[in-house]
Amino acid sequence: MPDAPPHQQAPPVQRLRIRYAKRGRLRFTSHRDFSRAFERAVFRARIPMAYSSGFNPHPRISYAGAAPTGAASEAEYLEIALAQVIDADDVRRALDEALPDGLDVLEVVEAAPGALADRLVASRWLLVVDAPPADTQAAVTDFLAVDAVPVERMTKKGMRTFDCRAAVVALTAREREQGGTELDLTLRHTVPAVRPDDVLTGLGEVAGLRPDTPPLVTRLRQGPLDEATGEVGDPLG
Q1: Residue partners of 132: CB distance under 8 A and separation at least 6
Q2: Rg of the chain over CA atoms, in angstroms?
Q3: pLDDT of 36-89, one tens digit each?
Q4: 219 CB burial (10 A radius; 0-12, 13-18, 19+)
Q5: Interacting residues of 32 by C-beta distance below 8 A, sequence separation 6+
Q6: Alpha-carbon gap, residue 34 to 38, rounded angstroms
Q7: Average pLDDT over all residues of the chain
Q8: Within its chain, how far is the Cα of 170 from the centroid?
Q9: Cα dihedral sign for 204, 207, 210, 216?
Q10: Could you tell me if residue 165 is left (phi over 0), alpha (psi between -120 and 50 degrees) or otherwise beta?
């Protein structure tokens, strides 16, 4: 007898967009680890997910713009498709309770038209670096004064060389009361993606700024970019 065709699932009746945070030690959670944890949380919270069709149905979850492993974030996003209409705030509470502390659901809203990924144009980052403020400010000034800063990074396709300067929308340095320096960095999302550590590498290439310890990196915002002001907006607005 011929094989039976794969089961066709009903189309989703509701789509929700979710903003979540990675905090504390959970900043070391990889994207793959998070996706496993989130699917388990969806199951425990009994969210009425819509599923894909085919021989191996899976819950319809779309991830967008995940931060690098090791970076904390207050602005991670995903979209889920549901088989039943449910209150967005009920979903937020249920998922936040089901996820471990440090992976925190902050906001759930009805999905607007268009793709979520298309609204994630830029990110604002805070980097805490173990370097003297005066040296850091001088390095920032030198970095912003040049048109291109090529850096190298190992990727899945091997060693890549790319310009990290072109992605920088804004970069400032200020002294921390606790010691060291904070860098306020806004990056445009590019292909290949320029990460905050690439900009630190660029500061080293241009001005010799090479802190002894890795920076503490936090994504503060992610969303549409106002070209006039350089501000990163809310993709769920």
Answers
A1: 181
A2: 20
A3: 999 999 999 999 999 988 778 889 999 998 999 999 999 999 999 999 999 999
A4: buried
A5: none
A6: 6
A7: 94
A8: 18
A9: negative
A10: alpha
CA-CA distance, 9 to 54, in Å (whole number)? 8
Q: Note whether 165 and 143 are within 8 A (CB).
A: yes
Query: Averaged over 145-153, what is the pLDDT?
Result: 96
Amino acid at residue number 101: D
179 band by pLDDT with thresholds 50, 70 and 90: confident
DSSP codes of every residue in the chain: -PPPPPPPPPPPSEEEEEEEEE-GGGGG--HHHHHHHHHHHHHHTT--B-B--SSS--B-EEEESPPPTT-EEEEEEEEEEESS---HHHHHHHHHHHSPTTEEEEEEEEPPSS-GGGG--EEEEEEEESS-HHHHHHHHHHHHTSS--EEEEEETTEEEEEESSTTEEEEEEEE-TTSSEEEEEEEE--SSPPPHHHHHHHHHHHH----SS--EEEEEEEE-B-TTT--B--TT-
What residues contact residue 217 under an 8 Å CB cut-off, 6+ apart? 68, 70, 71, 72, 125, 126, 127, 128, 196, 197
Give me the amino acid identity at 115. Answer: A
Whole-number Å distance between alpha carbons of 50 and 12: 6
| Token couple for 111 | 């999905």
**Cβ-contact 170, 116 below 8 angstroms:** no
pLDDT of residue 1: 46
The tokens 């793709």 sit on which residue? 115
* Cα angle 221-152-33, degrees, rounded to a multiple of 5: 50
